[in-house]
Design goal:
The chain is mainly alpha-helical. Among the domains are: 38 residues; 37 residues; 61 residues, no CATH class. It has ten helices and three strands. It has a three-stranded antiparallel beta sheet. Helix 6 runs antiparallel to helix 7. The longest helix is centred in the middle third of the chain and has 23 residues. The radius of gyration is 41 Å and the shape is elongated.
Length: 226
């Protein structure tokens, strides 16, 4: 009976069984009182973009890199990179295929950005960017001897060459007797133009600073004439 009286003294008559499942924290209970810790606010400062950073961002975006990749490379936030892209009005360039890049390497010196863009069906600004990226340059009119026309069209390039032996009794040798015929198509077509082979050999001797007749003799006598 003594034990029962002790238990009955500790029981609160106003407390139900449901109240025992959820204990309400009281202000006086210091053991379970949690203090709210305020997180310090990070001070953010706007960092201006340097000219070098803007140029690097332009290169990365035009190469097809993502904004997240550019932000990681530049050590910037994604929002800052996106804002700078809008500010500079940077347009993302579609990458060239291997075949298109090889065409650009082979023909940029002759066609320029406008001609290659028309041939590849791409934007001229994109072609100009990739030409600068690949360090391709178009020679000026005075850099070539004889000067080439400024607007040389693609169909002016020779696509096929054939050599015709005239079998003339006045010819000194096979080189003097031969005529080179140029075609503007790979398939059978009308000749584009013709040239005597000895004249072509003479032009090659002059261009490569060789003594006259070296190219023609190399065609008839092989390496012994060089």
């Amino acid at each position: 009976m003594d034990n029962c009286s002790l238990v009955s003294q500790d029981v609160n008559s106003d407390c139900s069984f449901a109240d025992l499942l959820f204990r309400r924290l009281s202000v006086s209970d210091k053991a379970v009182t949690t203090a709210l810790v305020e997180k310090p606010k990070l001070k953010t400062t706007r960092k201006s973009w340097s000219k070098k950073e803007s140029e690097l961002l332009t290169v990365l975006i035009r190469q097809g890199k993502s904004s997240a990749f550019a932000a990681k490379e530049l050590g910037r936030t994604l929002c800052a990179v996106d804002g700078q892209i809008r500010k500079l009005n940077i347009q993302r360039c579609k990458r060239l295929t291997i075949k298109q890049e090889q065409f650009l390497r082979d023909n940029y010196w002759l066609l320029g950005a406008a001609g290659c863009a028309k041939k590849l069906n791409r934007n001229q600004a994109t072609i100009a960017y990739y030409a600068k990226y690949l360090e391709l340059k178009k020679p000026t009119r005075d850099d070539v001897n004889p000067p080439i026309p400024r607007c040389l069209l693609p169909y002016d390039m020779v696509k096929r060459v054939s050599v015709l032996q005239r079998k003339s009794p006045t010819s000194k040798n096979k080189v003097d007797d031969a005529v080179v015929i140029f075609y503007d198509k790979n398939v059978p077509s009308t000749p584009m133009m013709a040239m005597h082979l000895d004249q072509l050999c003479s032009a090659l001797d002059q261009h490569f600073n060789r003594r006259p007749g070296v190219t023609a003799q190399a065609l008839t006598h092989g390496y012994k004439a060089v």
